[in-house]
Amino acid sequence: MTKGGMESVEVFTSEGKGRGLKAQKEFLPGDVIFAEPAYAAVVFDSLTHVICHTCFKRQERLHRCGQCKFAYYCDRTCQRAAWLNHKNECSAIKKHGKAPTENIRLAARIMWKIEREGSGLAEGCLVSIDDLQNHVDNFGEEEKKELRADVESFLEFWPPQSQQFGMQYISHIFGVISCNGFTLSDQRGLQAVGVGIFPNLCQANHDCWPNCTVIFNNGNHEAVRSMFHTQMRIELRALSKISPGDELTVSYVDFLNVSEERRKQLKKQYYFDCSCEHCKKQIKDDLMLAVKEGEGKPSAETVKEVIQFSKDTLEKINKARLEGLYHEVVKLCRECLKKQEPVLGDTNIYLLRILSIASEVLSYLQMFEEAADYAKRMVDGYLKIYHPNNAQLGMAVMRAGVTHWHAGLIEAGHGLICKAYAILLITHGPSHPITKDLEVMRVQTEMELRMFQQNEFMYYKMREAALKNQKIHVMPEPSNETSPSLFHKKE
């Protein structure tokens, strides 16, 4: 079964997994298998006034909808593009007196689209909204309570003149949002800013070592002629060579966790038992739990103690980060590393987590040399664990490259930036804003490296002057989130 722009994939029944997607032709790493616009999407409640409600880009100054005073847009182009989906919402918000939560807004947008187009197959969709999994039967008590509250709020918001839906159908839509909501990020890909439903993407099954990745592309409305505008969409991209007939898989969770933990997370959030190769054979678990080898090999008791200490420290770090106490975070990281270093192996995930936080926060505090040392160790560990074309790996290597540049370590910095660029060309593609930024950094560091090799003294003099103009940005404030996960799950 194929449909507009989806000729290269087909839906099939995957043994033990229900529906899945299969390749109809060969793909190479970096190929876009398909791009899909959102069936419906909304900005998170906490960011409604700083993110464009059409393209989900973060902007300094946004235009507010004059009618409902709730929706914000980059410009008239984005506002016009939004009107079909915003029209009903606009008058409902005015009547209701205020905007409801993101979950209610997303359900309402889905229902208005169904009212306009029917619930059958939408253009370019391989499956209808009715056929998406809702897992309501698997909900625990707490989830059922939330669902009932959502349905009640929805009914209060939903206008009487709109098409009326039965309670069971409304529950189905909320169930679909709960299991299939996809996280939308800002144009830098660093912050989760909204949630959308993409029916075709929902058909891709999970694998902890997938052959595809999903990247959110905010589209481009800046071209003078609107025929060159591209809409916001997700892109399913190949990470490795895919042959016709191969199943297309994506990872719903970050790989940087032992198989038992990933399986627990998948069961809790998506209600299935992962039976992928990496989970069945516990591939890479030994690396993720590695301890120091050799003469002074630590006892099992010592390892257990250090891991418990690491877990406790990570909790304290989270609390300090939330309060913006970054010097406290650094102190906690240093104490933890002192305990970890004689006991845990270089690829142990507890060590890597602390190294990652330490390098990010120290960069923000502009203590670049210490940050670069930790970033290098983190990347060395990541390279042994992650798939070579993993988006999270690419972002971590990029961060490490920029940190090294700031520390004045131009050779290592340029090498890391080149490595990150090679990964992101595959995971994000050449036209993504992050890849474009990285290309600028790559050219700049290459030029600086040549200068450095010719005359070190002159290089440092020029560098001092250049730093006053700050070409490569100082690190953003550390976020309390890891990079956005694939599917948005209401915690």
From TrEMBL:
GO terms for biological process: methylation. GO terms for molecular function: DNA binding; histone H3K4 trimethyltransferase activity; zinc ion binding. Keywords: Cytoplasm, DNA-binding, Metal-binding, Methyltransferase, Nucleus, Repressor, S-adenosyl-L-methionine, Transcription, Transcription regulation, Transferase, Zinc, Zinc-finger. GO terms for cellular component: cytoplasm; nucleus. SUPFAM superfamilies: SET domain. Its EC number is 2.1.1.354. It catalyses: L-lysyl(4)-[histone H3] + 3 S-adenosyl-L-methionine = N(6),N(6),N(6)-trimethyl-L-lysyl(4)-[histone H3] + 3 S-adenosyl-L-homocysteine + 3 H(+). PROSITE patterns: SET, ZF_MYND_2. It is an enzyme of class 2 (transferase). It is found in: Cytoplasm; Nucleus. Residues 7-253 form the SET domain. Its main location: cytoplasm. InterPro entries: H3K4_H4K5_MeTrfase, SET_dom, SET_dom_sf, SMYD1_SET, TPR-like_helical_dom_sf, Znf_MYND. Residues 52-90 form the MYND-type domain. Interacts with HDAC1, HDAC2 and HDAC3. Interacts (via MYND-type zinc finger) with NACA isoform skNAC. PANTHER family: HISTONE-LYSINE N-METHYLTRANSFERASE SMYD (PTHR12197), HISTONE-LYSINE N-METHYLTRANSFERASE SMYD1 (PTHR12197:SF184). This is [histone H3]-lysine(4) N-trimethyltransferase.
